[in-house]
From TrEMBL:
The keyword Cytoplasm does not apply. The gene is ftsX. Residues 201-320 form the ABC3 transporter permease C-terminal domain. It comes from the Bacteria. Keywords: Cell cycle, Cell division, Cell inner membrane, Cell membrane, Membrane, Transmembrane, Transmembrane helix. This is Cell division protein FtsX. It is a multi-pass membrane protein.
Length: 321
């Protein structure tokens, strides 16, 4: 009887003690609770880390905001890429419909608009506003009719326009084609330059942000190296030590990314409200927009990844066994 009681007491003493927080989520609940305790106990260190992540991501997101609006402006400018096909005579309704269907069947066609001679003369007079006397005696019959063809976005670069014009020349009945070849070439050269510059600057900023955030997190973990050493000495496994710090880094990254987006939105709204007072700028007609949802999601994920990876790489220096 006594031996059975001793065995029962021995079995109870060998049971693993319940960790604080396990009753609310198992071991993972303990890790989250431990991470939150670490944040409360090291407020200054965490504020510095979150502030660094916020500033770094604010710079990157500000660059993204400028780049996105430049791309939007480039898309608006690219809508001016237009091909005009001229005819020697006025087309009948049936001829217009037949030729329009052939043009619409060409890859890259977005919209086709027929301009008759009367409308062409009206446009000509508008361009010479104030000098209408130069057109006295000019009859609509001297002007050609035309199709104004708008292209899809995928065909607005130099190669796409040239390919479309080559296909258009094969249609019978068209006497001349104009599309501002030099303007299209210069516009696409400028657009490619902007994208290349954005790629180079973006890559540099990302590398700089990773370096700064990683070293900041490394300093915060270095300040708590004694805690890591004590946990190792009492027999805690490497994974058991790392997980609360990794969760802490993830929280720091998420908080930093959200703060950077809030600051960016505040700066964006302040710029829209005050830009007209110090520069020739009309926010209503500028068509500026904030970051789209997919970019916001990328920034949040980038902040979480920075915090997690920064903590993971920094812990390797202090936890080797």
């Amino acid at each position: 009887m006594n031996s059975w009681k001793k065995k029962k007491v021995s079995n109870q003493s060998n049971k693993r003690p319940v960790l604080a927080g396990q009753v609310f989520g198992g071991r993972f609940g303990y890790f989250i609770n431990r991470a939150l305790i670490n944040i409360r106990q090291n407020v200054f260190v965490n504020v510095v880390t979150i502030g660094t992540i916020t500033l770094a991501l604010l710079i990157v997101s500000l660059f993204l905001l400028v780049f996105v609006n430049l791309e939007n402006a480039a898309d608006n400018w690219s809508e001016r890429v237009q091909v005009t096909a001229y005819f020697d005579r006025e087309l009948s309704g049936q001829e217009q419909a037949s030729l329009r269907n052939k043009v619409m069947a060409l890859p890259g066609t977005a919209q086709v608009r027929y301009v008759n001679r009367d409308e062409a003369l009206k446009r000509f007079k508008n361009r010479l506003k104030g000098q209408e006397t130069l057109l006295e005696g000019v009859l609509p019959e001297v002007l050609p009719t035309s199709f104004e063809i708008s292209l899809k976005k995928s065909h607005r670069d130099s190669r796409g326009v040239e390919g479309f014009v080559a296909s258009l020349r094969q249609l019978a009945g068209i006497s001349e084609i104009q599309y501002g070849e030099e303007w299209v070439r210069r516009f696409n050269t400028f657009l490619n330059f902007v994208r290349m510059l954005g790629l180079l600057l973006g890559s540099f900023l990302i590398i700089a942000v990773i370096f700064i955030v990683s070293n900041t997190i490394k300093l915060t973990i270095y300040a708590r190296r004694d805690e890591l050493e004590i946990m190792s000495l009492v027999g805690a496994s490497r994974l058991f030590i790392k997980i609360p710090f990794l969760i802490e880094g993830t929280i720091q990254g998420a908080a930093g990314s959200l703060l950077s987006l809030m600051l960016l939105f505040g700066l964006f709204e302040a710029f829209l409200q005050n830009a007209s007072s110090f520069m020739s700028f009309n926010s209503a007609t500028a068509n500026l927009s904030f970051l789209p949802l997919e970019y916001i999601g990328i920034i949040v994920l980038a902040g979480i990844s920075l915090g997690f990876i920064g903590s993971l790489t920094s812990l390797k220096r202090f936890i080797t066994t």
